[in-house]
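Annex B.
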Amino acid sequence: MNTKMKMMTAILSAGMLFGGAGWQAVSVDAATTAVTQASVNADVTLKWNGKQLTQKGLISRGSTYIPITAVRDLLGLSLTYDAKKRAYTLSGGVNEITAHVYDASEIGLLVNGFYAGEPGAKIVKGRLYVPYSLLNEYLGVQGQWNASTKTLSMSTIAPNKLTIGSESMNKPHNKANIEVRYPVIRGMEHAEAQSAINAVLKKHAKTFIETAAEELSDIPQSHTGYPYEYTGDFVVHYNQDGLLSITSYEYTYAGGAHGMTYQTSRTFSLKDGKELKLGDVINLKGGNKQKLDSYILNQFEDSDGYLGGFTEVPEDAQFYLKKGTAVLYFQLYEYTAYAYGFPEFELPLKEWK
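DUF4163 domain-containing protein: predicted structure tokens.
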């Protein structure tokens, strides 16, 4: 994915999801010394596969943080720093993690260029820390917490027996950059299921490219100094227990005050390549569908930014999986103001049997 898409997405995310703080010019040295010990509760002993690490984690505001250098070493990743962009990047896996220093106390985390949500990263005494929740959701790490000894014991999660790679698709155009990176699955036990999954993912990328070209044919050349953008990437949320859950993101800018990001999530059964609907992973039979509709409506009405209009969760609702949870979401502007981002609702699988 190109740099401009990452930076524009980061800037938009900072404005939307950091309470309007936006991207502010601040030196890395200032950010390094800004986090006070008053916000840090305690050191955390870290273990990996039963062996205690020399580096310590920390607890801050109820979240456990791990030194990013420990993450690099444990998972065999590459860690780089771009001083111009004020960005630290962990790469080498299917999900690339970037920590952008927007402000002295706000370090946003991106996964393959898209906002990963709260909590963000922290820099304490010159060391960068990332939340354990990021490792658990995007880097295949699981952990057990011992409250009495303040010890987090970590190990890798056994993934499905497959390999997730990527391919890129682009279309030269005189008005815009049109490019998308999409996942390619290899090494599955069931070859027909693998072919079916790859066909769906490639078709989605191809449709995005074709739609971008069609839209550009109807608009004039950009005269703002900012070229149009139609670019996309993906994030792997879940790759366990015979299930694979992936979200494709597409960013478009065709003039106006800001661009737009769209999400499309797909969850597949690896046994047969079937794409699952929300009703396949949680129980929506009987009165459960009405219960879900009421729950989502109440959540909307109790939160800021709701524009109205929600009546029910559609059969083809967008969702993705993470450990023990289905995450239902809606698009920007669908029911909430742009500044509030993508509204998400976590549905614990045990509670929605």
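Helices lie at 3-17, 28-34, 68-75, 132-138, 191-216, 278-281, 288-301. The chain has three domains: 3-156, 158-276, 281-353. Further annotation is deferred to the next reporting cycle.
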